[in-house]
């Protein structure tokens, strides 16, 4: 049985580094600021330097804040409702907005240890699985 | 005021904020052009001015489409004056106000109109203030963004869901005294705490209701003022947009200090030469109830984490030391995006004129009106007698 065709929600959000999937971003070599996702125009939005390098983020972090959305947004999102979203703080000191998965959404709480996972977001109009990053409770 | 002419408010007008969907006699079917033009006509009456005296118009709206100010003014009469449409999310009205203020201050015109109007789409606001891929992730939900800020506020200050419910109770109580409010019935703490969850820990009654409505403010030089009773002067009108590291930045969030609200407050106090201790009445930004509490703290009316206890002690009540959202705020008045920020300013004006009826704060001499907007934007206006 062939698996369904998969497409990323957006190119270059994550990559298989050989040590698992990791979120990708940019680091400014002038001011040291980190960005997620990759700055596609190559410009630091803190100091406007053009001296950026690619950066690979840690796979684990802790929940900085979270909520459960109980009502379906009017457009775009068409996953399960209710759903949990929040900010995950990575050891590098950056906070990533994310969906949570593989848990009871009511259990997501500030300080919880979580890890990155690449998962289906929804099916597109051509029947392909649109993939995205999410975080789940760390093992 | 920096090297400019004094600007005063010549007159104000607004419609009742309501759902104008034709469901019953109280809420006939109305277009934004009806609501906007009605508000402008009320403001002309209030200012005792003729339409021909208006030299320029800035019109705030978010969902009304192109040339919405032109279509609204078409209902009153096109006179060849410049009409500029201003979309700046929920701070569109205060952005239009600021443009009108600057034109007079700079000496380009003597009498300028700032208007705001909206007929709202129903349900969650379809905010496009996020990159498209983030909307597919379900991040473009304003109550959820507020909920995540609220969770942090609770962590850092010990504030509780009940504290936020008290904001709703206070504002709905004030709104019961405001004939222009969408919600004119008070609610109990229990009703708020038992309302359905929309984005944990925010419940339905922690969120302001949407509404349709129109607002208008006529600004002028002091010598063009016709209404008697002494001038109400614009002491400051500032706008801070998009400080680095905010929530709409796409992917990562810094929450850097000072934030957008704090920077705009610093500018407003510097521009006015006044301080929080000089304010007799405040319109804080309560699109979600928790926001009113940290807004009061960031504007400088109390220290971080102190607003919940002050609220419990009645400090922000109509008869308290610093009445906040005397007209019911967004929570009772309802939220027509383009019209809201001017309604905040109008309430301060009415209070300073002594025209606020049963919700009048005695001897109010100065007040502050705040409106936030996606982007982010933070617009502050300070008025004084």
What's the short version?
The complex is a heterodimer of chains A (139) and B (385). By secondary structure, chain A is mainly β.
Structural commentary:
The complex is a heterodimer of chains A (139) and B (385). Chain A is mainly β and 139 residues long. In chain A, 0% of the residues lie in helices and 45% in strands. Chain A has 2 domains: 9-57, no CATH class; 58-139, OB fold (Dihydrolipoamide Acetyltransferase, E2P). Chain A has strands at 6-8, 14-16, 21-28, 34-35, 52-56, 60-69, 83-89, 95-99, 113-123, 129-137. The mean pLDDT of chain A is 93. With 385 residues, chain B is α/β, with parallel strands linked by helices. Chain B has helices at 32-47, 68-74, 92-105, 132-136, 142-157, 161-175, 189-194, 260-272, 289-299, 307-312, 329-333, 337-353, and strands spanning 8-14, 56-60, 83-86, 111-118, 197-199, 202-203, 213-220, 233-241, 281-283, 366-373, 377-384. Chain B is globular and about 55 Å long. The interface between A and B is large, with 40 and 38 residues.
List the helices and strands and how they pair.
The complex is a heterodimer of chains A (139) and B (385).
Chain A (H helix, E strand, L loop, with lengths): L5 E3 L5 E3 L4 E8 L5 E2 L16 E5 L3 E10 L13 E7 L5 E5 L13 E11 L5 E9 L2
Parallel strand pairs in A: 1-10
Antiparallel strand pairs in A: 2-3, 3-4, 3-5, 6-7, 6-9, 7-8, 9-10
Chain B lengths: L7 E7 L17 H16 L8 E5 L7 H7 L8 E4 L5 H14 L5 E8 L13 H5 L5 H16 L3 H15 L13 H6 L2 E3 L2 E2 L9 E8 L12 E9 L18 H13 L8 E3 L5 H11 L7 H6 L16 H5 L3 H17 L12 E8 L3 E8 L1
Parallel strand pairs in B: 2-3, 2-4, 9-10
Antiparallel strand pairs in B: 1-7, 4-7, 5-6, 8-11, 10-11
Helix pairs in contact in B: 1-2, 3-12, 6-9
**Helical element count of chain A?**
0
Using the 3D structure, state the CATH architecture of chain B: 3-Layer(aba) Sandwich
> What's the alpha carbon Rg of chain A, rounded to whole Å?
16 Å
Largest interface: A-B, 40 and 38 residues
* Major sheet characteristics of chain A: 6 strands, mixed
H and E order of chain A: EEEEEEEEEE
Question: Any idea of the CATH topology of chain B?
Answer: Peroxisomal Thiolase, Chain A, domain 1
Question: Which class of the largest domain in chain A in CATH terms?
Answer: Mainly Beta
Proportion of residues in β-strands of chain A: over 45%
């Amino acid at each position: 049985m062939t698996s369904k065709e998969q497409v990323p929600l957006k190119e270059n959000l994550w990559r298989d580094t050989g040590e698992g999937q990791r979120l990708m971003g940019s680091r400014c070599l002038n001011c040291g600021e980190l960005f997620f996702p990759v700055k596609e125009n190559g410009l630091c939005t803190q100091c406007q330097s053009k001296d950026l390098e690619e950066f690979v983020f840690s796979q684990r972090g802790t929940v900085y804040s979270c909520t459960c959305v109980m009502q379906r947004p009017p457009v775009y999102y068409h996953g399960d409702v209710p759903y949990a979203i929040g900010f995950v703080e990575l050891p590098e000191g950056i906070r990533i907005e994310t969906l949570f998965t593989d848990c009871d959404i009511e259990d997501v709480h500030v300080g919880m240890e979580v890890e990155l996972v690449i998962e289906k977001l929804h099916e597109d109009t051509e029947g392909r699985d649109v993939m995205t990053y999410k975080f789940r409770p760390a093992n | 005021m920096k090297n400019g002419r004094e600007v005063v408010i010549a007159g104000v007008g607004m419609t009742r904020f309501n759902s104008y969907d034709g469901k019953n006699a109280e809420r006939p079917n109305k277009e934004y052009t009806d609501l906007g033009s009605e508000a402008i006509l009320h403001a002309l009456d209030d200012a005792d001015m003729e339409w021909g005296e208006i030299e320029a118009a800035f019109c705030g709206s978010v969902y009304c489409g192109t040339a919405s100010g032109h279509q609204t003014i078409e209902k009153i009469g096109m006179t060849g004056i410049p009409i500029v449409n201003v979309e700046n999310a929920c701070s569109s009205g205060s952005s239009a106000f600021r443009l009108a203020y600057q034109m007079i201050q700079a000496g380009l015109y003597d009498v300028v109109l700032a208007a705001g109007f909206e007929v709202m789409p129903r349900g969650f606001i379809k905010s496009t203030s996020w990159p498209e891929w983030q909307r597919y992730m379900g991040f473009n939900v304003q109550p959820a963004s507020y909920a995540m800020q609220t969770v942090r506020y609770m962590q850092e200050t010990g504030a509780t869901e009940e504290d936020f419910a008290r904001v709703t109770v206070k504002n709905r109580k004030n709104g019961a005294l405001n004939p222009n409010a969408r919600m004119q019935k008070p609610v109990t703490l229990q009703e708020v705490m038992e309302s359905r969850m929309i984005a944990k820990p925010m419940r339905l009654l922690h969120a302001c209701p949407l509404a349709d409505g129109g607002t208008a403010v006529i600004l002028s030089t002091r010598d063009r003022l016709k209404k008697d009773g002494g001038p109400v002067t614009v002491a400051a009108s500032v706008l801070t947009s998009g400080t680095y590291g905010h929530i709409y930045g796409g992917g990562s969030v810094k929450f850097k200090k000072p934030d957008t609200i704090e920077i705009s407050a610093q500018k407003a106090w510097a521009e006015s030469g006044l301080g929080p201790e000089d304010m007799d009445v405040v319109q804080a930004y309560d699109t979600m109830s928790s926001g009113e509490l940290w807004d009061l703290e960031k504007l400088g009316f109390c220290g971080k984490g102190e607003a919940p206890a002050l609220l419990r002690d009645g400090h922000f009540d109509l008869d308290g030391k610093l009445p906040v959202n005397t007209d019911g705020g967004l929570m009772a008045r309802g939220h027509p995006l383009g019209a809201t920020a001017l309604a905040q300013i109008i309430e301060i004006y009415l209070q300073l004129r002594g025209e606020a009826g049963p919700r009048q704060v005695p001897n109010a001499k100065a007040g502050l009106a705040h409106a936030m907007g996606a982007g982010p934007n933070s617009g502050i206006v300070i008025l004084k007698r």
